[in-house]
Design goal:
The protein is of the alpha+beta class. It folds into four domains: about 100 residues, 2-Layer Sandwich (Killer Toxin P4, Chain A), CATH 3.30.430.20; about 110 residues, Killer Toxin P4, Chain A (2-Layer Sandwich); about 80 residues, Phosphorylase Kinase, domain 1, CATH 3.30.200; about 250 residues, Transferase(Phosphotransferase), domain 1, CATH 1.10.510.10. The chain has 17 helices and 21 strands. The strands form six sheets. Strands 5-8-9-7-6 form a five-stranded antiparallel beta sheet. A five-stranded antiparallel beta sheet has the order 10-11-12-14-13, sandwiched between helices. Strands 1-2-4-3 form a four-stranded antiparallel beta sheet, with helices on one face. A hairpin with a 3-residue loop joins strand 6 and strand 7. It is a single-pass membrane protein. Its main location: membrane. InterPro entries: GNK2 (IPR002902), GNK2_sf (IPR038408), Kinase-like_dom_sf (IPR011009), Prot_kinase_dom (IPR000719), Protein_kinase_ATP_BS (IPR017441), Ser/Thr_kinase_AS (IPR008271).
């Protein structure tokens, strides 16, 4: 028995450590994988970081499991932090889990941004803003369980369940965005799932984050009965057996769990009169020793599996987070390609930087966008945008080859489009003659297909928000390629509209409901496309004045001629040949796109059909928006039409609009 004491003590300590790990739900990933930059030991940032983490080790009780510790320090050494517990975890387990995470981060990481994930909680800190900001800097993924009996049925049932939970969680308040649920998959599989967002996110941000997490499931867990997807702003987990506390919808509703000290002590003798029997004592000791041995074996297995999983999990996370690095170019490579950004290689200057022609070592020609120093983006946001735009693959969109991020340089490397932008041809009295009607009609159709891809066929629904002739580039065969996604807005799957207080874009191309009230939908791109059609057909800019006595701009002039039965009057005089029927049809479609009534504007899918099939009967357009008319026309024009000199739009212009004058740029893009 004397020799058993030290062994028992060791195993008891190991058991306590194992129970502690169980309390926090198990280690999930290397916390430093989220690092975006190092700091030096004993630096100001290091001191601020440790002070912040110490605050998490002494957090006081709350009843919903979200902790936003105030920022520590001032820029550039300011540190921000948040912690979130899973919605079904009890308060004391929550706080213990967060304390463990804070200690792990303090002892493991020398990066300016890091996150520690356990099954029961998450803690992250950053030198960037955190509260109210959805972070898409990669998701950790883990498969669980075996293969489902019917993979297709399991996948369909899981998709339906997760979508319903996404809606429920996103609709939660500022205290908690958390939902659990269960469904059945044929023939015998049960599915339990849990989703959660940090409650500082908006409903749309939460919904979008969860949708992106769902997209990671096929990469790790297709056909599996379980899986975990953990990100800085949201988590998803599912399994064929229940893994959450179904009786606790919110933290704090259950009484605290009993302390280990309140449990009856471990007894080596049974409560009977024969407890002194040698045989009884021997059996008890052997039974207890067997239990201890079993615990020891379990501990060894746990440690070995944990080490094995750590390697797997780190590889998974690195693959997800660092995928953007495959697009990165060295600065020296780009300097060589552009002859050190020489004036001879300069293609143009936009509002967010200059564009240079370059030739890589393999002979490939590229266009290099050199963003100005005051672009206002951090490294992380810049990389996220690169990842987004690089995924857009369509023949009518400019392809992004990669980027360079070294020191203060932020460079975007696009495919080289030799014929510059559409406006360089369309509004030049000499070059416009190169644009025959057949070429213009091809350009209109190509732009429509590119926008349709953004709205309906890409992985995410994207509203461009700045469609105009200068953002349509032409390749060597005069095929159009849409560029400049710097003002693009992402919609989650199923989302149709949103609102913003920051209106960006170019006047004349902006739909009235967006310019005046900040209302966002795919129909604002439809409006801009309508303006593009009218410009391409007429060869005139949107704000030109054709009739001095009537003061009509392009839209007003097109509408007036349409109503008078003379639509061909606005056609570019340089178009001496071409189908008049096609020209009239394009004017018709353009007027349908710029209707004031948003609901009456066609979708891009309908527009593509209108352009490619003459068997489709076009509806009659109603009055458009944003056209000027004189007093003599006011009796025949709708009184609801907007006047470009009106006070509503004038106020919007002064207070919130930002014009884009660049040709190829990528600036502040806010995924939602």
């Amino acid at each position: 028995m004397a020799t058993l004491g030290p062994l028992f003590l060791y195993l008891f300590i190991s058991l306590v450590l194992t129970l502690s790990s169980a309390q926090r739900g198990g280690w999930l990933a290397d916390p430093c994988l989220y690092g975006t930059g190092n700091f030096t030991t004993n630096s100001t940032y290091h001191t601020n970081r440790n002070h912040l983490l110490s605050s998490f080790t002494s957090i006081s009780e709350n009843d919903y499991g979200f902790y936003n510790v105030s920022s520590v320090g001032r820029n550039p050494d300011q540190v921000n932090g948040i912690a979130l517990c899973r919605g079904d975890v009890k308060p004391d387990v929550c706080r213990d889990c967060i304390k463990d995470a804070a200690i792990e981060l303090r002892d493991s990481c020398l990066t300016k941004e890091a996150a520690q994930f356990y099954d029961n909680c998450m803690l992250r800190y950053s030198n960037n803003s955190i509260i109210g900001v959805r972070n898409n800097n990669g998701f950790f993924r883990w498969p669980e369980g075996g293969i489902a009996e019917d993979v297709s049925a399991f996948s369909d049932a899981l998709t339906s369940l997760l979508d319903s939970l996404r809606i429920r969680a996103a609709a939660g308040g500022s205290v908690q965005k958390f939902a659990t649920g269960m469904t059945m998959a044929r023939p015998v599989d049960s599915i339990y799932a849990l989703v959660q967002c940090t409650p500082d996110l908006s409903q749309i941000q939460c919904s979008s984050c969860l949708s992106q997490a769902f997209e990671r499931i096929p990469k790790c867990c297709l056909g599996r009965r379980g899986g975990k997807i953990f990100g800085p702003s949201c988590i998803v987990r599912f399994n064929d057996s229940i893994f959450y506390n179904d009786s606790s919808a919110n933290i704090g509703k259950l009484p605290p769990p009993p302390s280990l000290l309140s449990q009856p002590p471990l007894s080596l003798t049974p409560p009977s009169n024969d407890s002194g029997s040698p045989s009884t004592i021997t059996i008890t000791v052997i039974s207890t020793s067997s239990s201890i041995l079993l615990i020891s074996i379990c501990i060894c297995i746990f440690v070995r599996v944990r080490k094995s999983n750590k390697k797997f999990e780190k590889a998974e996370a690195v693959d997800e987070i660092e995928s953007v690095e495959t697009l990165q170019y060295d600065l020296s490579t780009i300097r060589d390609a552009t002859n050190n950004f020489s004036d001879e290689n300069k293609l143009g200057q936009g509002g967010f930087g200059a564009v240079y022609k370059g030739r890589l070592a393999n002979g490939q020609e590229v266009a290099v966008k050199r963003l100005s120093m005051n672009s206002g983006q951090g490294d992380l946001e810049f990389k996220n945008e690169v990842q987004l735009v690089a995924r857009l693959q369509h023949r009518n969109l400019v392809k992004l080859h990669g980027f360079c991020l070294e020191g203060k340089e932020r460079l975007l490397i696009y495919e080289f489009v030799p014929n510059s932008s559409l406006d360089r041809f369309l509004f030049d009295p000499i070059k416009r003659t190169q644009l025959s009607w057949e070429t213009r009609y091809k350009i209109i159709g190509g732009i429509a297909k590119g926008i349709l891809y953004l709205h309906e066929d890409s992985r995410l629904r994207i509203i461009h928000r700045d469609l105009k002739t200068s953002n349509v580039l032409l390749d060597e065969e005069m095929n159009p390629k849409i560029s400049d996604f710097g003002m693009a807005r992402l919609f989650v799957v199923g989302q149709t509209q949103d609102a913003t207080s920051k209106v960006v874009g170019t006047y004349g191309y902006m739909a009235p409901e967006y310019a005046v009230r900040g209302q966002l939908s795919v129909k604002i791109d439809v409006y801009s496309f309508g303006v593009l059609i009218l410009e391409i057909v007429s060869g005139q800019k949107i704000n030109y004045i054709h009739h001095e006595e009537n003061l009509a701009n392009l839209i007003g002039d097109a509408w007036r001629n349409w109503r008078e039965g003379t639509p061909l009057n606005i056609v570019d005089p340089s178009l001496s040949t071409g189908s008049s029927a096609e020209m009239i049809r394009c004017i018709h479609i353009g007027l349908l796109c710029v209707q004031e009534n948003v609901a009456k504007r066609p979708t891009m899918g309908s527009i593509v059909v209108m352009l490619t099939s003459y068997s489709v009967t076009l509806p009659m357009p109603s009055h458009p928006s944003f056209f000027l008319y004189s007093a003599t026309q006011s009796n025949t024009s709708s009184s609801q039409s907007f006047n470009l000199e009106g006070t509503q739009l004038h106020k919007s212009r002064n207070e919130s609009a930002t014009a884009s004058i660049n040709e190829v740029s990528i600036t502040e893009l806010h995924p939602r």
